[in-house]
Amino acid sequence: MSIRPIRLFGDPVLRTPAAAVTSFDKEIQTLVADLTDTMLDAPGAGLAAPQIGVGLRVFTWNVEGQVGHLINPVLTLSDLTQDGPEGCLSIPELSIDCVRAQSVVAAGFNMHGDPVTIEGSDLLARAIQHETDHLDGILFIDRLSQESRKAAMKIIRESEWFGPDTQVKVSPHATNGFGF
């Protein structure tokens, strides 16, 4: 299909909760194809529709050779957690440790409207949680400790892509005790 520009930190679309998909038509199939092509080209472990400026609850992933997509995800998280490096295509050149659930069960739909359930642990669980956060207007830096978030913001402010026109906002959504 086509590779689309990835929106960067500061773009308001990244802080706006995405709308549920209600029609599984050719447009959704094209969106999934564009997300997949863009993610693979970047390359990234996942990409959510808001990251290409589309406010719909759709994301793709590419973890350990497994490429997939999920629409309108609902997650069930394990009580066990993992702490490891995380990055984001919308925040280039930043990787910092972030706490996530160790495993996840994600229920939703494929691009044809068929119900699907994805179970994952480790990196796949991290990717699914990260991309679902994007659909809720949450960035992974919102889930960092105050000290780690401060360090991340310093790196962002010093990056070449960050400029005076970049709009920075704290997430208005609950971050489950992480971040602020």
TrEMBL record:
Its EC number is 3.5.1.88. It catalyses: N-terminal N-formyl-L-methionyl-[peptide] + H2O = N-terminal L-methionyl-[peptide] + formate. GO terms for molecular function: metal ion binding; peptide deformylase activity. Its cofactor is Fe(2+). The active site is at residue 131. Fe cation binds at residues 88, 130, 134. InterPro entries: Peptide_deformylase (IPR023635), Peptide_deformylase_sf (IPR036821). The keyword Metal-binding applies. Gene3D superfamilies: Peptide deformylase. One of its GO terms (biological process) is translation. Keywords: Hydrolase, Iron, Metal-binding, Protein biosynthesis. Binds 1 Fe(2+) ion. PANTHER family: PEPTIDE DEFORMYLASE, PEPTIDE DEFORMYLASE, MITOCHONDRIAL. HAMAP family: Pep_deformylase. Removes the formyl group from the N-terminal Met of newly synthesized proteins. Requires at least a dipeptide for an efficient rate of reaction. N-terminal L-methionine is a prerequisite for activity but the enzyme has broad specificity at other positions. Belongs to the polypeptide deformylase family. This is Peptide deformylase.
